[in-house]
Amino acid sequence: MSFFKVETRNVSLYYGNTAALKNISLGVPENKVVAIIGPSGCGKSTYLRLFNRMNDMIDDVRVEGEVLLNGKNIYADGVRVEEVRKRVGMVFQKPNPFPKSIFENVAYGLRINGVTNKRYIEETVERALRQAALWDEVKDNLKKSALALSGGQQQRLCIARALAVEPSVVLMDEPSSALDPISNAKIEELIWELKKKYTILIVTHNMQQAARVSDWTAFFYLGELIEYAETKDLFTNPRNEKTQNYITGRFG
Amino acid sequence: MQQRAEASPQTMQSTAFGARRPVVYYTDSLIKSVLFLCALVSVFTTIAILTVLLVQSYFFFKEVSLVEFLTARQWTPLFAEKHFGILPLLSGTLLTSLIALLVSVPLGLAVAIYLSEYARRPVRKVIKPFLEILAGIPTIVYGYFALLTLTPLLQKFIPHLAGFNALSPGIVMGIMILPLVTSLSEDALRAVPDSLREGGFALGASKLQVSLSIVFPSALSGIMASIILALSRAVGETMIVAIAAGNLPQLTFNPLEPVSTMTAFIVQVSQGDTPYGSLAYNTIFAVAIALFVLTFILNMISFRIRKTFLAAGGG
Questions:
Q1: I need a surface site. Which of B128, B170, B286, B314 has the fewest CB within 10 A?
Q2: CB contact set of B5 (below 8 Å; sequence gap of 6+)
């Protein structure tokens, strides 16, 4: 068993012959928020996508090492990738609601799992929308197209959509980089709330955001994990020179 | 072209005086005018064709009322006892076209989904040229294929099938418009942003679920446009039905019987010995106008769907 909710052990990832992630070992305790920071192209999104095996869809990708979810290697033989993804929700950089109604967006994850109990679906949709702090804004318009919502609302809808299938881990890939400051603040507040129930990994370019929302922060550079520490330590007292240079804005 | 040749010495001169900009200016405006004339050709052609159709069919409608044309149930302009109801031709056209759609839509969409969502690049590279070849086969070849190969084959399974019938050319026409449905639908499917697919996969959806419940509905308007365009192509198709459908105008929706379509009738009259200017001769213009209106409406619908599709952020 692993002490951590999710963990990577000596994970390397190759696109063809190029190593995008080099020997990364990192663990995330349950109900904590871990922020992953680093300059563009450092592999942080690739790293995040290890946990729901979204890298599988790219041709010519090879993963070495172990990625553990609840102590079990999700890259082991016989693991069904769909099952992994049901337990690990993901929120993307740009809101990507389906061109369906608000209700159907949130219900989608249930429907593809063959859930047909109408009452159960309605209750779950309401719960997920409440968790995503969107319920009050949309409860009278559940039949409206999700595309009619504002960008910030769409992103919270995508969070609700991910939460509806009751994952235990939520991956967020720069979830508020495409949003205005107010929507951004709402998402950050939400992350604080969600932490009580979920384990969260968040990739962000915004160091203030990392400092505000996360318990632990990992700094990636050129596919390597340079430093991983409690957030307040990493930002006030970085051990590595590269980390210091990055968080003080000297490169990246 | 001559104008251009004359213009060049002048432009050379002005270069000699060091005035470079006018050279560019003159050639530029000359090319602009030439291109504009080219564009006008298509406009004038359309207007000319419409004028001919309208004028000639005026002579027709002077003798036959529009009501009779649209409601009579027999079409026998070449017989001694003449009837001028377009319904049999219309039913023949719609029957063969619908059979074509029944073949091409399910097959075409399946191929489009396969090519867009499943096929890896090397496979797509092999399949696509074959579809292009299908689109490039002359329709006369399709026509003989329907008459001499498919009909005898079908007769082994359907004993009542007439030698000329609606079924066989309909099926072959479906194969003919298959590339159209496939390639336009595939374009629409590929235009669906990958972020939507990722959203589905991230929720644990399978490839089939993502393809059918996210990508397909997102591309639906583009797919509808492709289907209507294909229908319009089938309605206008001539050679296959002229050869294999039997040229027998009758108001029926039985695919096993011979029928005639609007296009096939026009062929029949144009190549026959119908005297120029006679009422029978003028019928082809009335039929042509009806055909024109029909395909025009279909194209407009397709165009409008495509437009709203583009406005909605599709591809």
A1: B128
A2: none
Give the phi and the psi of residue A38 in degrees, each rounded to 5.
Answer: 150, 160
The pLDDT value recorded for residue B310 is: 65
Share the mean pLDDT of chain B: 89
- A29-86, pLDDT tens digit by residue? 999 999 999 998 899 999 999 999 999 888 889 999 999 999 999 999 999 999 999 9
The crossing angle, in degrees rounded to 10, of helices B87-113 and B167-190 is 40
Closest Cα in chain A, distance from residue B314 (Å): 11
Out of B120, B195, B209, the one facing A96 most closely (by C-beta) is B195
Q: In what order do the strands lie in the sheet with A72-73?
A: A18-28, A6-15, A61-69, A72-73
B193, B204, B206: residue with CB nearest A109: B204
Q: Which residues of chain A have pLDDT under 70?
A: 1-2, 252
CB neighbourhood size of B18 (10 A): 6
pLDDT of residue B275: 86
Which residue in chain A is spatially nearest to B117 when comparing CA positions? A57
- pLDDT (average), residues B89-97: 96
Residue with structure tokens 């596919």? Answer: A223
Question: What are the structural domains of chain B?
Answer: 2-63 (no CATH), 87-311 (1.10.3720.10)
B22–A contact, CB cutoff 8 A? no
Domains and CATH numbers, chain A: 6-247 (3.40.50.300)
Q: How do strand A61-69 and strand A6-15 relate by DSSP bridges?
A: antiparallel
Quick one: DSSP state of residue A9?
A: E
Can you read off the two tokens belonging to residue B229? 């365009």
- Is the predicted pLDDT of residue B20 greater than 60, yes or no? no
B216 to chain A, minimum CA–CA distance in Å?
11
Mean pLDDT, range B54-59, rounded to an integer:
92
Closest CA to A161 of A51, A85, A58: A85
- List all residues 6 or more positions away from A198 whose beta carbon is below 8 Å from its beta carbon: A31, A89, A163, A167, A168, A169, A170
- If you search the block for the tokens 């990994």, which residue do you land on? A201
- Chain A environment of B204 (Cβ under 8 Å): 82-86, 109, 112-113, 165
As for the ipTM of the complex, it is 0.93
* A39 phi and psi angles, rounded to 5 deg: -65, 165
8 Å CB contact of A165 and B203: yes
Per-chain mean pLDDT for chain A: 93
